[in-house]
Amino acid sequence: MDGDIALSKVPGKGWADRAVAQAGKPVVSRKTVGRLSLYRRLLDNLRGTGTTHIYSHQLAHLAGVSAAQVRRDFMVIGYSGSPNRGYHVDTCLASIESLLDGATRQDVALVGVGRLGRSVLAHFAGRRPLLRIAAGFDTNPGVIGTTIEGCLVHSMDDLERVVAEKGIRIAILAVPPETAQAAADALVRSGIRSLVDFTAVPLHVPDEVFVDHMDITSALESAAFFARQDQGTPPMDNGVDNGSEADMFPMI
Amino acid sequence: MDGDIALSKVPGKGWADRAVAQAGKPVVSRKTVGRLSLYRRLLDNLRGTGTTHIYSHQLAHLAGVSAAQVRRDFMVIGYSGSPNRGYHVDTCLASIESLLDGATRQDVALVGVGRLGRSVLAHFAGRRPLLRIAAGFDTNPGVIGTTIEGCLVHSMDDLERVVAEKGIRIAILAVPPETAQAAADALVRSGIRSLVDFTAVPLHVPDEVFVDHMDITSALESAAFFARQDQGTPPMDNGVDNGSEADMFPMI
DNA sequence: CGAACGCCGTTACGCGTTTCACAAGTTACC
DNA sequence: GGTAACTTGTGAAACGCGTAACGGCGTTCG
Description:
2 copies of one chain form a homodimer. Chain A has helices at 30-48, 56-63, 67-76, 89-100, 115-124, 159-166, 177-189, 216-228; strands at 53-54, 87-88, 106-111, 131-138, 147-148, 151-155, 170-173, 194-197, 210-213.
């Protein structure tokens, strides 16, 4: 290898055979978890419409993935539907939620309460009872001490203390790129476990810390690039796809 | 298959041998383009520090990927460095930019000029001369007609007309989930080619349209999930990783 | 001047994910 | 009651991607 670093990736991890929930560590892939989160929202909406059962290809259509994908995802989390009846919305939702939400409430720190930070904050205001943005941090004296969307903003200087005290293990990073790494370091020192990074720069954190880099710049530049290619959806990745509505969805 | 859709994927495409720029269609994967965008930013910063040459493993460290990945990415776009000297920052940058930016300026539409839309707008204000957010759209009468960050906000009713007139082929979608699909449909009708979707719901668009779904909700819920697992970085996906600074980067 | 080192370009391999395809099961209808 | 048309669940292939490994070449030091 090159000189130094190890570069993410799962350590040794046999991964092995049955990936189903077992000793408390379900071993679900990143992408699967992302889709489950999406299924959850879709099913939640569906329940509001009074739908009680749904077929894999219907949910697949809503989520923009293949039916096989849906079935496989549910298989991973160990949820089974009934043949010829499809999946029961309520129990399916319960199954997903028990996996995603866990037992206890999790607090989130919002680091950087600027425009973007506030957007994200508003986006989540009381959306999930078990996932609450419990503290904000910023360097701007104008916002320190204020409460936005029910979230008290602290000074960045208090970050390590407050995060450690509250036992916060998840953080949203929405600071300018220059201070991103320093903020990430402070978060890691105070025991953070997961980061959602809206910064323009990649963060260097220990392997044990989960990082999702939401790179808006890359997203737009990629969009611009593929807009120039005449065939649209290039190789792979998360599909969203599909075209036209047509018949679809008899909805029971 | 299920009833209808086809689901992305590149058509036949041998991919085969040299995937380099050739007949104008480089055939570069989505992820590679994303990384190239990142390399571009990093190299741009680097040039500011006076660095003239850089090794693959150095750039890899900055980007949070493996050195082999960097070399392969550059191979894909047909850029060659010099052995024992590394990559020449200026020419490398030029090579990436010629691929990402293209020849002419591309205009972008911002649909939904709410909190999130404005954040993204500010994020991009004049960042790339060849990629300009040229028009905003919203239903809120309070913002229609105003100019934010040099971007005039139109009524949503004028979307199809303005987008078609200006020949806009890229759009950022930052509207409430209820109106997302309708907005996407309108954009598609007016000839959009790429979408960056910040909506909570997946969009149904023709296969020819490139879509990048920036799902903030999923990102946070995934982060919450993996925060509960003790080993951090789960299976795979875009790494960001790595740990500690240490020696790194003699910088010429 | 020669040899050893270090990096790049490239090919081959391995892994994870997605899709295909089929067995098993259940319901509804004739 | 039997049968036909659906579904789900799942093993196995296909695909794309990333990593490891190797040849080549320029540089540098003995």
